[in-house]
Design goal:
The protein is an alpha/beta fold. The chain has two domains: about 1-130, translation initiation factor eif-2b, domain 1 (Four Helix Bundle (Hemerythrin (Met), subunit A)), CATH 1.20.120.420; about 140-365, 3-Layer(aba) Sandwich (Rossmann fold). It has helices at about 40-50, 55-70, 75-85, 95-110, 115-150, 175-185, 200-215, 225-230, 255-265, 285-290, 300, 350-355, 360-365, and strands at about 1-5, 5, 10-15, 20-25, 35, 155-160, 190-195, 215-220, 235-240, 245, 250-255, 270-275, 280, 300-305, 310-315, 330, 340, 345. It is globular, with a radius of gyration of 20 Å. It starts with a strand and ends with a helix. This is Methylthioribose-1-phosphate isomerase. GO terms for molecular function: S-methyl-5-thioribose-1-phosphate isomerase activity. It comes from Methylobacterium gnaphalii. Its EC number is 5.3.1.23. One of its GO terms (biological process) is L-methionine salvage from methylthioadenosine.
Length: about 375
């Protein structure tokens, strides 16, 4: 996508071809800055501190992190050290482990002298596949928005949660990709952007993206979505996912489950958009089996923003001394999901539904 008229991916090789550069998402929306990742430790830190975030993007970053590790030491022992270090950065998104397993399997089977070149090539391949998948997700999802537009006056009102746009992937995004494709095709679209506490990825990142692309949108408090649905101001909900089970349970940013409950109560269709790498075929019960990351309580108790004078300040917003819990994700059961938008089409949220798009998984099982 474009920033100030220039096309960017969220991660790309540096001029020297060895290091990679990423957009520092902790600085958005007030400053657009790049960070250079020159070592595996740099990549691990970028994932852990959410300089990069979003399930597909952290998977690609991990693949490049493994390549950076091979540049320093291509031994079999270092493959295992790097995989363990990168896998430990964030536990919930399955794309991270998927990308590492894929790249590491290739490297383990290769001669040590070939591993560095293979690792960089595989990371680039994973990145390119992500772009193609997200573009295809956009095309399939845009048909839903076009169908709604054909039967109503005024714009299609989409509610989304967190940031599942191009900043969460390499390009295009997952939940926002259908919006971009539809908007570019002339479909009138308006997006309700949940602020998404505590890190405010909706207010900061999704709004930043939509603003840059010229998509009409309105930022709302997280608790406003149900009210809007009750008053027929939401036509469809589309969210992303950090891990989706083989049975169609969807794990996404904390607060997604509440939106799904409100959508179900108001008969608003609720879709999750995700690539094949987000499906965890080993799990069936998302609530019981998906590990939920618990992040630092300071993300809840404190907020950082820009002052009226143009500076930045961090302020405490929780009563001093009160304990804080900060689960980063929740799970929406498949029964509350209307459909899952993938690069291969739209599936029913069930094992049979997903296998209809990925029949090779049935053979693998």
């Amino acid at each position: 996508m474009k920033i100030d008229g220039r096309h960017y991916r969220t991660i790309f090789p540096d001029k020297d071809g060895a290091a990679v550069e990423v957009i520092d998402q902790t600085r958005l929306p007030f400053a657009f800055e790049l960070q250079r990742l020159a070592t595996m430790d740099d990549a691990a830190r970028a994932i852990r501190t959410m300089v990069v975030r979003g399930a597909p993007l952290i998977g690609v970053t991990a693949a490049y992190g493994l390549a950076l590790a091979m540049r320093e030491d291509a031994s079999s022992e270092n493959i295992e050290r790097a995989v363990a270090a990168l896998a430990a950065t964030r536990p919930t998104a399955i794309n991270l482990r998927w990308a590492l397993d894929r790249a590491a399997a290739l490297l383990r089977a290769a001669p040590e002298q070939d591993r560095e070149v293979l690792a960089y090539a595989e990371a680039a391949r994973i990145a390119d596949e992500d772009v193609a998948s997200c573009r295809s997700i956009g095309e399939h999802g845009a048909r839903l928005l076009s169908a709604i537009a054909d039967r109503k006056d005024g714009p299609v009102n989409v509610l989304t949660h967190c940031n599942a746009g191009w900043l969460a992937t390499v390009d295009w995004g997952t939940a926002l990709a259908p919006i971009y494709v539809a908007h570019d095709a002339g479909v009138p679209v308006h997006v309700w952007v949940d602020e998404t506490r505590p890190r405010n990825q909706g207010a900061a990142l999704t709004a930043f993206e939509l603003n840059a692309h010229g998509v009409p949108h309105t930022v709302i408090a997280d608790n406003a979505g149900g009210h809007l649905m009750q008053h027929a101001q939401v036509d469809i909900c589309i969210v992303g996912s950090d891990r989706t089970t083989a049975s169609g349970d969807v794990c996404n940013k904390i607060g997604t489950y509440l939106k799904a409950l409100a959508a179900h109560d108001n008969r608003v269709p609720f879709y999750a958009a995700l690539p094949f790498s987000t499906i965890d075929w080993t799990l069936n019960d998302g609530v019981a089996e998906i590990p939920i990351e618990e992040r630092d309580g300071r993300e809840v108790s404190h907020m950082t923003g820009r002052t009226d004078e143009g500076g930045f300040a961090t302020v405490q917003v929780v009563s001093p001394g009160s304990p804080v819990a900060n689960p980063a994700f929740d799970v929406t059961p498949a029964r509350l999901v209307t459909g899952i938008i993938t690069e291969r089409g739209i599936a029913e949220p069930s094992t049979d539904g997903l296998l209809s798009l990925y029949p090779e998984r049935k053979q693998a099982a």
